[in-house]
Amino acid sequence: MAKPTWNPPNWISAPVWSALYLGMAVAAWLVWRQAGFRGATWLLVLFGVQLVLNVLWSCLFFGLQSPGVAFVEVLVLWAVIAATMVAFWLRSTVAGVLFVPYLAWVTFASVLNFTIWRLNA
Q1: Under a CB-based contact definition with an 8 Å cutoff, are residues 75 and 110 in contact?
Q2: Using CA atoms, how far apart are residues 103 and 63, in angstroms rounded to an integer?
Q3: What does the alpha-carbon distance between residue 81 and residue 60 come to, in Å, rounded to a whole number?
Q4: 3-state secondary structure of 88
Q5: What's the average model confidence in pLDDT over 1-15?
Q6: Is 9 helix (H, G, I), strand (E, B) or coil?
Q7: How far does CA 36 lie from the centroid of its chain?
Q8: SS3 for 35?
Q9: pLDDT tens digits, one per residue of 18-69
Q10: Which of 1, 74, 101, 107 is the most exposed place for a label (fewest CB within 10 A)?
Q11: Phi and psi dihedrals of 17, rounded to 5?
Q12: Please, are residues 87 and 43 in contact by the beta-carbon 8 Å criterion?
């Protein structure tokens, strides 16, 4: 696949995603710790949905090499991440703030996904 010149190097992926997943895990833990599973059921379900969508995007983009379909899916992922961030923020400011870098990275990834799609159309 053709990629733009501003595509990040491959080595950056592992440390960035490690930090993002750590932040997401801490955020979910903060929400769970404050309310338990019963008190935070819908928040934790929302968290799980965005994780599933995250994996689905990887399957579509890397596995199926379908950047057009992956772009549509990443827009849904972005919306669910934003909803999770806001919902977490309302329960715990720190939990919400921990989602900001994740949303920023997925915003960048969305633009990159779109660009790769257009370059390879």
Answers
A1: yes
A2: 23
A3: 18
A4: helix
A5: 96
A6: coil
A7: 23
A8: helix
A9: 999 999 999 999 999 998 999 999 999 999 999 999 999 999 999 999 999 9
A10: 1
A11: -65, -35
A12: yes
Question: Is there a contact between 99 and 23 (Cβ–Cβ < 8 Å)?
Answer: yes
- The whole-number average pLDDT for the span 89-95 is 97
Which DSSP helix (H) or strand (E) runs through 62?
none
Question: Nearest-CA neighbor of 83 among 102, 66, 69?
Answer: 102
Structure tokens at 86: 């806001």
Rounded Cα gap, residues 52 and 16, in angstroms: 19
* pTM assigned to the model: 0.95
Query: Six-digit token pair at 118?
Result: 């257009």
Burial class (CB in 10 A: 0-12, 13-18, 19+), 97: middle
- Separation CA 112–CA 26 (nearest Å): 27
Q: What is the pLDDT of residue 41?
A: 96
